Design the sequence.
């Protein structure tokens, strides 16, 4: 395994180039590309805000647009990265069959390019935070750590899903459907404590994205400290998912060429 | 010095699933109907051993389906042997049409760099090779054009030219002459002669017996996955003609 990791490290420039390619293509083909990456979460924010504060007149959550935007951005990263990465090996079949390179760079690069996109879209969030004068504290400095933990988790899951999709091609469509259920089970437009007061602990444990979003909100919305004990458990889970996903992918990738 | 390529009792088995479920849906249907998907085992190589020294040029010939491409894929690590071992010293470059790795919306130049990094070559190294690659492909005027505007010939030339300018120790060629016009083929052959003179190892799979005779002092003959002969080309070609006559 160390040998494979060293090899992966030797191919770090490929990962970088694939990420750059993704971003270039995303932003080159439409002048609006970058603007869209900012507008899309804003539009969703407006829709959710109207639905939950005007139509349902639920005013218990302060600064609702900021509350919802933290959830939407983290969720967007989660869903775009996974749905992109799941097809990354199958979509590059011609290349995989012709040239040897560590195949894990494909899902990893897809997740990372979506992570860069996420970083860019944080501009919108900070804009809203300023607009609503949400008081933040120095705990904002923990943001890179929370992002890192989310990326670690997402890479692990992406590796697993991309490998399964080579053998069972409908994995991607199954995931697409599951994503909708997953969206509702994740506290994006609600607080877990309001909706599942008895099971909140369990909901966090079973659903790492719920924990990321809670951490993002602690530092970006409540402006307080996140529960470090809780957060380190989330980090440990993410790391475990990464290691398991990587080991699984390595084993599965030996048969990729014959299965593609 | 270790051999450039060493096959030690290599066997490769393909499993052909006539009804392998390709999706969860099919897997479920098979389960309900209690089909277990009959599979056929096919040995593409049996107990093949040879070793190629650095600087040698070796031809691999044999009828269709005899396992030549499988052997090359094993050397380039795209697939793994079912049993036995394959050891290769140094960097391997397969001179294949790499157009498959291109992205249509990127320019020729961007694609060259991307392909380079797929083959494990740093950007700095590609900087040094860029002009040679472009010149060889005869695409100076179009290098900053998106490759979706290339003709299929231009596409192929760029893919080949990138592959041929990689600094490798072992070059693999599978039916090189199947692609390109005569002018480009001649250039590729000259490039291969260049590799030979620089002391690189070359493995050439070909149907073109005169070509094998011209380029390869030594040739390996495969038939139905067995290594039938391995030695000076003239004798092996003779043997191949006898096999083919039967
Ligand atoms: N991925 C695969 N799955 C099943 N059978 C394969 C696969 N690849 C090659 N084969 C079979 O293995 C045999 C050898 O193939 P190959 O190495 O391509 O032969 P050659 O290049 O000498 O024509 C052929 O009979 C071919 O059908
Ligand atoms: Mg072949």
Sequence:
């Amino acid at each position: 395994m160390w040998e494979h990791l060293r090899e992966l490290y030797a191919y770090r420039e490929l990962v970088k180039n694939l990420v750059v390619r993704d971003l270039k293509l995303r932003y080159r083909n439409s002048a609006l590309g970058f603007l869209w990456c900012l507008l899309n979460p804003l539009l969703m924010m407006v829709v959710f805000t109207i639905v939950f504060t005007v139509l349902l007149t639920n005013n218990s959550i302060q600064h609702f647009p900021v509350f919802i935007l933290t959830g939407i951005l983290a969720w967007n990263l989660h869903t775009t990265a996974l749905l992109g990465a799941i097809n990354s090996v199958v979509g590059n079949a011609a290349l995989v069959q012709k040239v040897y390179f560590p195949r894990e760079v494909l899902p990893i690069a897809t997740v990372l390019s979506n992570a860069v996109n996420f970083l860019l879209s944080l501009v919108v969030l900070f804009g809203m935070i300023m607009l609503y004068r949400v008081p933040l504290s120095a705990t904002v400095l923990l943001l890179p750590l929370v992002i890192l933990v989310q990326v670690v988790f997402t890479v692990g899951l992406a590796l697993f899903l991309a490998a399964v999709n080579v053998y069972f091609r409908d994995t991607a469509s199954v995931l697409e459907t599951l994503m909708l259920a997953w969206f509702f089970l994740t506290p994006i437009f609600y607080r877990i404590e309001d909706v599942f007061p008895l099971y909140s602990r369990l909901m966090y444990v079973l659903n790492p994205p719920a924990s990321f979003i809670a951490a993002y909100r602690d530092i970006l919305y409540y402006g307080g400290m996140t529960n470090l004990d809780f957060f380190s458990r989330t980090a440990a889970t993410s790391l475990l998912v990464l290691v398991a996903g990587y080991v699984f992918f390595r084993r599965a990738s030996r048969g990729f060429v014959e299965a593609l | 010095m270790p051999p450039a390529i060493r096959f030690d009792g290599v066997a490769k088995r393909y499993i052909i699933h006539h009804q392998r479920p390709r999706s969860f849906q099919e897997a479920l249907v098979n389960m309900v109907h209690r089909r277990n998907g009959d599979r056929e085992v096919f040995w593409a190589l049996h107990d093949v051993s040879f070793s190629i020294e650095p600087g040698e040029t070796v031809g691999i010939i044999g009828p269709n389906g005899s396992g030549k491409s499988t052997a090359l894929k094993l050397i380039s690590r795209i697939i793994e042997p079912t049993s036995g071992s394959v050891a290769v010293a140094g960097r391997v470059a397969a001179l294949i049409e790499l157009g498959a790795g291109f992205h249509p919306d990127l320019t020729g130049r961007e694609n060259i760099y991307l392909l380079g990094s797929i083959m494990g070559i740093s950007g700095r190294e590609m900087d040094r090779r860029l002009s040679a690659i472009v010149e060889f492909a005869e695409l100076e005027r179009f290098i900053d054009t998106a490759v979706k505007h290339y003709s299929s010939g231009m596409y192929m030339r760029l893919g080949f030219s990138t592959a041929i300018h990689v600094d490798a120790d072992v070059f693999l060629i599978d039916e090189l002459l199947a692609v390109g016009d005569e002018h480009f083929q001649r250039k590729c052959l000259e490039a291969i002669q260049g590799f030979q003179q620089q002391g690189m190892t070359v493995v050439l799979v070909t149907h073109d017996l005169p070509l094998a005779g011209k380029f390869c002092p030594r040739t390996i003959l495969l038939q139905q996955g067995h290594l039938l002969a391995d030695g000076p080309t003239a004798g092996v070609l003779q043997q191949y003609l006898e096999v083919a006559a039967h």
